[in-house]
Amino acid sequence: MSAAFGPWIVERPIGRGGVATVYRCHHTTRTEVVAALKVLHRTEGAPLVVPRLAREVRVLRRLDHPAIVRALDGDPNAPEPWIALELVDGQPLDRARPGRRPPDEVADLAITLTDALVHAHRLGVWHRDVKPANILIERATGSVRLVDFGIAAADNELSLTEPGGLGPGTIDYSPPEWFTGQSRTNPAAIDAYALGVVLYEQLVGEPAFPVRGEGKLSEALRRKVATQQLDPGPDVPEPLRSVVRALTQARLPERASLEEVLPRLLAARGMPAPSARLALEQNDAFVGRDELLAALEALDGQPLVTLIGAAGVGKSRLARHHLATTGAVVAVDLSTVRAADGLDRAMALALGVSLSDVDPASQVERALAGSGPVRVLLDDAEGVVEALRQRVPRWMRAAPQATLWITSRQKLRLPEERVLVVPPLDRSAAVELLGRRAKEHGRPGFERGLAERLVEAADRLPLCVELVATRADAPSERELAGWLAGQGALEGALASSFDRLPAEGRRVLAASTVFRGGFGLQMAEQVLGTRPDEPPLFEVLQLLVDTGLLAVRRGLGAFHLLRTVRAFAERRLSPGEARALRDAHATAFSRRCEELGRRGELPGEAELPDLDAALEHARSGLPALVGPLTRALGEISRGTGLPAPDRTAVVERR
């Protein structure tokens, strides 16, 4: 049987160091979620290892940058302390490709790492151990990832060093002031100097301050203190050469900050300055979201705000963007949390609390109360809505200065809660987003009509639209929803919501996929049926609406499914169940056509998709139903001018 740490199941070891072993693992209930699990060795001689693990989790929870590895979970107080990190399939920089790198490649590396460190510094976090071994290059993409925040400092936490040691970090990359009595003057300058040394070594292909052989440490330190700056040489183009010199100035007052050199690096690569670049990224990421961003600003200061909406609609991105642009925030990733104890642990890790076995919920309350006017983002909270309904009122009483922001597909229904519904993009914004993303992937633009059909098939959800833009081919609308529903991020979110439903919710959602258009309660009762051991059907449908899996068409009184949800849920039906549902569906709509015919009325155009589906199924095995359905469709064709043949294609194009 595989070992388990919290909700994580160990698959195999992937690395071992002096104080920890790293394993590949997967989540217990969401097996598609994998992680790198770092488990500390049971040793008596490393008293600072456990606090460092707790610190690593705490500081990573504050960061959200594509070049910084994320912490998913952890328990520093377990018998074998552990942390689950985002799994990166890569090699350390010094092993990915030894020797000199081309200046352009080093410049790109410098931009990525500088941007990541500036992000961390703005949130009050300093890495303090920047070196090639802590910079990973992903094998598949070549992307750069900064890892190992084990001795990182947050805010004023600058005291955690090895007993008797000179300071944090690795001697080769630590700045001269650590060895001349000025070690606590400027923590951001520690990262700046270390990055400068890393860049120098990548440009020249050799260590800047090698410690070779026994007794050479003191010599290396003397050389470091005596070196006024590192110069990679005249064959390195400006401004990269000047940036390396500026970052490795021995005298602290003369050393450049990372924020100072970032615009110079960007300019050298023909990229916009940071402020302009940020504006461009915001526009790209949030096409058609100006009103929502303004609404988020208007909600600042509210004690409890919940963003709800369908999977893939962009709730997390909107919340993180808004909060990051208005100051520091404690971000708590709840995507893999399913119980109250897991919620307490996630909050404790984010707030830097060492939980005991005695009343951990109260410990979290005290920590929150002592944090002042902190802003907490509880992200992807669908799995712990019931636990949050119990915890949030207690948190608000204990910490009235704190503000809580939640992203979920379900509201908490608390009196203090302000709910912002994040809808799909409107059609024009979705088409614009599709065009932008296609261009970024080197694809030609879409003809307007095709683009409109594709974004409608993608439910106008930003995540789905962006996935469509990555396709090398132009998929048909008929196949697109099924393809989208099988993509990792979306499928994981849908599976998570589906698995948490009670049995009646799973049954009704899967059965609802037989409808091709909107459907009312009366038709649902005829087709889906009711069972004596289940709640009333209306209550089950309302549950599906509350969890974002079923929508209501305002003004029409009809339920409907997003195409991606339908494609996902259809796969939960057995062939026998699907056949029985199609029989019931065709029978119900045939009966409706007969009743309307007796009254001299016609079905509405909104019922066309279901009439077409019913007729198609009747022709394959229910001949008695073909007549009423064919007559109804013929009457609608004469009344609307739409051609009767190939009505399915007509309806799908509408």
- Which geometry do the CA atoms define? elongated
Number of helices: 26
**Major β-sheet annotation:** 6 strands, antiparallel
- Stretches with pLDDT under 50, minimum 5 residues: 152-168, 275-284, 640-654
Give the proportion of residues in helices.
Answer: 40-55%
Determine the strand fraction and express it as a percent band: 5-15%
* Structure classification: alpha+beta
- Give the beta-strand count: 18
Calculate the mean pLDDT score and round it. 80
Characteristic terms for this protein:
654 residues; alpha+beta; six-stranded antiparallel beta sheet; five-stranded parallel beta sheet
Can you give me a brief rundown of this structure?
This protein is an alpha+beta fold and 654 residues long. Helices cover 46% and strands 12% of the residues.
Detail the topology: elements first, then pairings.
Layout: E1 4-5, E2 8-16, E3 20-27, E4 34-40, H1 49-61, E5 71-75, E6 82-86, E7 90-92, H2 93-96, H3 103-122, E8 125-126, E9 135-138, E10 144-146, E11 153-154, H4 187-204, H5 217-226, H6 240-247, H7 258-268, H8 274-285, H9 290-298, E12 304-308, H10 315-325, E13 330-333, H11 340-351, H12 360-369, E14 375-379, H13 385-398, E15 403-408, E16 418-421, H14 427-440, H15 448-457, H16 462-469, H17 477-485, H18 488-500, H19 503-512, H20 521-528, H21 537-546, E17 551-553, E18 558-560, H22 563-570, H23 575-598, H24 608-619, H25 626-640, H26 647-653
Parallel strand pairs: 12-15, 12-16, 13-14, 14-15
Antiparallel strand pairs: 1-2, 2-3, 3-4, 4-6, 5-6, 7-9, 8-11, 9-10, 17-18
